[in-house]
Design brief:
Layout (H helix, E strand, L loop, with lengths): L5 H9 L22 E5 L6 H7 L1 H11 L2 E5 L4 H9 L5 E3 L2 H10 L2 E8 L7 E2 L1 E6 L14 E4 L5 H15 L9 E4 L3 H9 L5 E5 H9 L8 E6 L3 E2 L2 E5 L4 H12 L4 H4 L6 E3 L7 H4 L1 H5 L8
Parallel strand pairs: 1-2, 1-3, 7-8, 7-9
Antiparallel strand pairs: 3-12, 4-12, 4-13, 5-11, 6-9, 6-10
Helix pairs in contact: 1-5, 3-9, 4-5
Length: about 300
Amino acid sequence: MPRPTRLATAAIAVTTAFTFVLSGCGASSEATTAPETLRVALLPDENASEVIKNNEPLKEHLEKELGLDVELVVTTDYSSMIEAMARGRIDLGYFGPLSYVLAQEKADIEPFAALQEVEGEDPTYQAVFIANADSGIEDLADVAGKTVAWGDQASTSSHLIPKAMLAEEADLRVDQGDYEEQHVGSHDAVALAVQNANADAGGMSLPIYERMVEEGLIDSETVVKVQESDPYANYPWTMQSNLPEDLKEKLRAAFLELDDPEVLEPFGAAGFAEVADSDYDQVRDLAPLLDIDLEDYQ
């Protein structure tokens, strides 16, 4: 069950900006029957139509393995996804580490699988701090007095981790006026803001940065890497704890035994590995560092 910590305040505040239309009561902790249609939410960290299109193979895979209809959903923002999970309007959710931690404060959910980029290795990933090549930023200390673009406020790799990097390694904090910040919503929007010089620097997922470079969406000579972060537990797949146990076992198997390259390609992964709630304590530990409270999410 959700634990009452300081992050509960942040989770409540995150949902203030909630714009995804919901109805009905919150999810019950009692076991339920299997839904006729499994509602699967994908992170709104890139263009929604592209996210849904790219994950059609996942939908087909789940329908085959589970014997259920599957509906893919991309909410308007992270806060909407958190609220939808808390209200029981989503059965399965693909969260970022921070948005999972915030959602877990409000909803009875459990993580069960995370991306494994290299078979046999821990399911981790990294963020990257980027800058426009003409900004004069060569290291984190150079960000002083500059403008930084973040993604969603509840994003781990396009907000929390790179912001922590600035605070821990360069002693730069936005609440001290050391730099200016703007939230542009998604990882791809961060990269484009930096490329178009609408921001001097930004933070985003390293895998998304590398994919955008590979696809020619951004120029690596214009949008340069300043510093990569340490590894963090990768994006978790989570499910409502009150789903029937037989369905939960099928869901675990559908992800943990998945080896279809077409399904895995949008994730840039070799497969999925098992994870537990404690794997995200590293993200929880960043909350006091950044003084996460109501004002951070208004």
